[in-house]
Amino acid sequence: xxxxxxxxxxxxADAAKYDVSCSSSGSTRxxxxxxxxxxxxxxxxxxxxQDGRCISLLKILYTNYCIYDCAYCIxxxxxxxxxxxxxxxxxxxxxxxxxxxxxxxxxxxxxxxxVSPDHTMERLIAxxxxxxxxxxxxxxxxxxxxxxxxxxxxxxxGLWADRxxxxxEIPSENNLKLLAPEKDFSSVLSPMNQIHQGIELNKEERRKxxxxxxxxxxxxxxxxxxxxxxxxDFDILRLASGFYKQQNLKRVYYSGFVPxxxxxxxxxxxxxxxxxxxxxxxxxxWLMRFYQFRFDEILDDRHSFLDPNLDPKLAWALRNxxxxxxxxxxxPYEMILRVPGIGVRSAKLIIANRRFGSITFSHLKxxxxxxxxxxxxxxxxxLPLHLRDIDPVYLRRKLSPSVNPKVVQLNLFEHA
Length: 416
Prior knowledge:
Elements (H helix, E strand, L loop, with lengths): L2 H13 L41 E5 L26 H13 L5 E5 L6 H18 L5 E5 L6 H10 L2 E3 L7 H7 L5 H24 L11 E7 L6 H15 L3 E6 L18 H16 L4 H4 L13 H8 L6 E2 L5 H4 L7 H10 L7 H7 L3 H4 L3 E2 L12 H8 L17
Parallel strand pairs: 1-2, 2-3, 3-4, 4-5, 5-6, 7-8
């Protein structure tokens, strides 16, 4: 590899590490004769080392030059840091050479905004277009749609990329204006709406014409920064819920705010990213997507932040003791899903096995139910009812994880 390209790779891969998202591809693109690579729905995943590098996708910026000066961003124009830009050919060659060595399974391509949103979007599209059309690259491509770019470019991006994402970054427009004065919600929501409509239209088109080109087959996602502005978890979950319902997003990512610009008075004075809060938001998001919880069931005006000591499902159960106990031999699937310690797979197994007889304690153990939590909220054969005898306050203390003062939260980006 040329030394100049290697230096760019070091700068731009390092600059991309703050985009801390993790997901499977959600896209199936089988191998084809004469083509290079393939993408599998559950086979291409992000994974991160201590310094934030993605180890299965080439996760990189096209450039870390940027015309914007966002308070929370390491790549803002006012920061004095090494800058670099790839050419289209350099980035294509890097992707192919890494793929052929089996280092990566695809490309995660983002960028700072240089010259204009349209100019940047054109450069990203050129990379994906060249990979697909000239090199027949059939691997996974996740591409950022640059807020403010034209509808024509977003439409073309969806023809080359498996997944598109438009980052909303700050959960409220007022605080976005404060922290990123040159951005606004409309520049994010317009391409997001367009991508959603494009995906729906493409589904209809492919029902009529099987060989119609696919548009963003792995859907779209967005990312929120948690803790850079004062929105509550309730505000964040309400926004995410709206995205899932209105734009049918595949994922909303929650990135704990990393204080990369500590001298900016617009930002909170924190030393470390709020990783526990980030984790609780991911758990709550899981409840909305797979457990049929509404955002206003998980939190409300009186409880606007997630409990850092309890997972959101257990916290909800302790606030709603009237919902329990759930009789596993009679309750519907939706009620069983709400029992702490019972996951989607276990709930389906319980429903399926009821056809052959009563559910017992030993059945639950074999299904993998977390009985240390679930036993207080259920009834079934061989398992006595606990909730009537136990105060939720006592249960909260009993089920809260013990705090070990020797255990500390590690810094994601601290070098060993």
